Protein 1
Amino acid sequence: MEAKRICVQGTVQGVGFRPFVYRLAHEHTIMGWVLNGDSGVEIHAEGEPDKLQSFLYQLEHAPPPAAVIASLSVNSIPLQKFETFSIKRSQHKAQPTVRVSPDLAVCEACQKELVDQNDLRFGYPYTNCTNCGPRYSIILGLPYDRPLTTMKEWRLCATCLSEYSNPLDRRFHAQPVACPNCGPKYYLKSKDSFIRNEALAIQETVKLLKEGKILALKGLGGYHLACNARNPKAVKELRQRKFRKEKPFALMASTIEVAQTIANISSDSQELLESTARPIVLLTSKVTLEAVSPDNHDLGIMLPYTPLHHLLFNAGAPDCLVMTSANRSSEPIAYKDAEALESLDAIADAFLIGERPIARRVDDSITRVNPFGSSILRRARGYAPASVSNLPARRPILALGADLKSSITLVVKGQAFVSQHLGDLDHYEALKAFKETLHDLVNMYEVDLSKTTVVHDKHPYYYSSQYALDLPAKKQLSVQHHRAHVASVLAERGSFDKRVLGLAFDGTGYGDDKAIWGGEFFVGSLQEGFERVAHLRYAKLVGGDAAAKYPIQAAAGFLNDLEPQNNFNQAPFAFPKRYQKAAKLAHKDIQTFQTTSMGRLFDAVAALLGYTKTNSFEGQAAIWLEHLARSSSSSTYYPFPFENNELDYRPLLQCLSNERKAGKDTSELARAFHNSLSRSIREACIQLTKQHQLDTVVLSGGVFQNNLLLELVKADLKQSNMNIWVNHTVPANDGGISLGQAALACFI
Amino acid sequence: MSFAYSQIEMSHGAGGKATRKLIENLIAPTLMNPLLACFDDSALIDIDSGKLAFTSDSFVVNPIRFSGGSIGDLAVNGTVNDLAVSGAKPLALVLNIIIEAGLPTDVLKAEIEAVARAAKVAGVNIVGGDTKVVEHGKADHLFMTTAGIGMLDKRLSLGIERIELGDKIILSGPIGDHGISILLARGELELESNLSSDTRSVWSLVNSLIEQTPNAVKWMRDPTRGGVATSLNELAKDLQLGIKLTESDIPIHDSVRGACELLGLDPLHIANEGQFLAVVSATEADKALAALHKTPGGSGAKIIAEIIAEPMATVLCETAYGSTRVIDMLVGDPLPRIC
């Protein structure tokens, strides 16, 4: 006989890990105990050496589906001659570094019970077990135990208690465990009815959805607004009530088979769709669903992930629902009942409200398979607040990210926890969520701010920058926006000393020279920092943020440098008056900034090719341009020279302008623009990697969410034998900035 | 007698005969009033017992003339308005002028006339002042400083300690006209028609509030540089309460809105020179508003905001789409943020 002390770190709490250990111990006649400690699961195991070895092997190689083991340490200790194996109470001593589990989609076992008329939890929308259900969205504090969740109000009935206490049961220590007899319920509320009976409430919801009504449904991390996606009248009505002109709506398909009838789904995409995170996956559409995704060949689809979703579909809800975050125009998702009732009053015809409170707002995540693998565009439900990497931090680091697509990264004992997507901070609700999440993370991991390094963006007027400076930190640091983008990719991979060529292409970030950057090339590593070695040629940015809203205005800045004989007021361009006004401002340098923004170059090209309207959501013109280009297979390209460490857009824009005047098809021109950019990136990469003796290129920033561009760059760089690294676990957009900031802060 | 020089020279600031000529022949006749006529070192003013308000402001605007006004208008109205929003009836101003040598006499004359006109409209006398000339390049055409005194109206009792939850905020008229006019005048741009500075005295409007609803008025401010957003943020921070604006209620000319959209500016951050904000009790807000509406120049007044408890020290704006933005102070030149 011998004894081992085992410590398992990672996502091991709230995922059925202790019952799994318990069962494993029984199978291997191991004695001792298991408990949830502050730094992970601790096990005391005594048994015959061969049994112990097999026990350890199983522990490491066959953990529960939602568990992620980050590290496992085994030490020999003196025998204590235990006669049983038990599960001990949770311990809470020092600063916790246990990972809070993200919310999990309902598992198959629970789904089966849901439709089994003889089961206790038949038709119960709050069913869950150790393998599935809510986690982050119900946690009020650590360690993860029922009294520290939003389920604390509901006392377990005898049946639930016996399951909860039985180590061999699937619900052993499932903190949110509940049943129709003791747990929270759903009810339906509308102007003229109130249905208490849960089954009837669900039936009525289904009926209303079928009638084309708009429903507010309480979900895991907030409310959804739902309507029948195949009913254009309902979808248009929702757009009108939400003041949401053109931004695509997310869909929920009842099954993977239904999803396959509306979109092309590769095996990689299917894997994402069916993963425990159940994110929205962007897919190429097969059919046109009117008003769901205007001017866009992609559909954002997810599969049901709560018992309630399954119940609705089982009860006959339309098989494809619009499921959009419930909020008023561009605010974060509503998650508190009173607020939802008030703010959605003019939008929803009825509310399906569940009694279990949501501890914090967690939006649906958005993902996509790109040519380099899976990517994430909005990281929230199912992913947050999981640790994304290990960073060599000397003290805790709190990185506050950027103001748009805000996220916060907290590094505790070397683990980088990235918060859920928080939204755009000039919205009050998002700013509130930002502050709450910051304190949430700091409290959950018991971090002392006065001993913490706080990192913010270099932009002096970001709310997050100003907020950072008011925090009582040990040390304050600012990190330049685009360096943080490049750093985020290296942080994901744990590559601290790898020297790379980093391309950060996006819309706006505050540069070292106070100009607005966005088309940047850096050389360096996380350890040594990044030096800017090249960039897009400077252009004028007229009216600052207005240029991001009106592509025509971005065009005025970029076309300012071209030959004066171009007349963009006339056909085929027919630029509206705004163009001339903006051109005048550019000429006089009034409210005009210097920029190297690649995002604005996309806007300018979109304008040249016919996109002369206002962007009703961020990046709309660039997405329009990508989709226009996708419908052509042209391999034409125009000169976009990389000379003297500068990408010169002038010849490119002049060619596009001439070709458009000559009547060339705009989708071919859009394609040619992408081709030209990709070739120019290749040229720059070859020159710069040679000059700096590098073998790896990093691509980050919102522009690299363009799948067509990624495909072209991948093909163009294929023969160069360069490694190309992109973001996988955090977004390439500003949602990844906080991780990059934290990574760079480790070495400053 | 008239002033025979076509432009101002250094000698006009030397303090000798030339200076006397400039003052006697050009400045004084234009501003003439009984107190100024004495040419003494100080003006003596009879006042009743009570509290005096005393303020000063400098004007260095470039260009000195712009659509809707000029530096002379601003010099009078700026100081008059500072007195008015303190609840004081403007009594007298002193005017100091710094002239860049080489300034055409016509330009100076026009500005002195503008001062005289504005003073007359505001019902205030210019009772003294000083004139200096500096070398070419040491000033930008013409600088003016005015100092003014006013008599506090006893019927009013202003003080932020009187402000309560639910109190309303009245804005006297459309915002942003001045700042946008100046910005465009600087580039000699005519982007929008019907755009001109709002420079004016607000005393008559303030006076109508004093006459009609003296007890209701608790705080007033003229939202000049930094605009309404900055004035309200300062108020919210002083109060440690919140302020909630309703976007659709904020009066603004289409031309200003259009220009702001083009320039990427928030009208709430743009300077005004002829408007004021007043916090009034909820119960008398409508009456106060009606008083303004009946007064010439007050027809554009609106109730734009309310004092709320949460979030503390913050100004929010509910948009037409129902979402809520945080309105920050202007912290510098507006830099782009959007990705």
Protein 2
Amino acid sequence: MISAEALSTIRTVAYGAAGIVCAGYALAALLSPAPETLPHWAPLTAGIFIAIVIFASAFVAGPANTAASLDESYREDQRTAAVFGFWGAIGCGVALWLLDLGGAMQLAITMTFSSGVFLLAHVVLELRGRM
Amino acid sequence: MTLINHLTRHRTAAGLTQAQLATAVGVSRKTINTVENRVFIPSTVLALRLAAALGTTVHDLFELETSEMEHTP
């Protein structure tokens, strides 16, 4: 049986890993002279992988522990992280538009960057709450 | 709005850890910690559950800062 605390830890680690992959991909695409050579499947694969890990962990933890790990402070953190992701997307989109990298590049970087910001913001908020 | 809470005092008086109180009211330990540290304001339902778990009332656990209460009509 996985406790609510352990499930929250698993979820936080998973969010952090996927967030690093997404943000890292966005940064690599921005800095690379040949972004089309980057593994475009990496962010999606990371997302699917952590979804499986979190779902399986929640299944083992059971409904009571899962509900406890998804309590009102988690939902508050999720809303706050979404705000960071939103403004990260706006800022990134504007910055890339000014750099004039082209629509496809702009979309790819903005999407993965905002996803990374959302996930990593979640991690920071969770860790802040535990201290 | 400044919320003062006496959750830590009541929890320790009851001999409970944050984890134990969290389990008793069905939330994560992080939630209890953030409430105690005034980072997170609990919902009414959670406040009532905390009071019930600690054998006290919501008013004993939480109160508004005095200066704000003086301005309350």
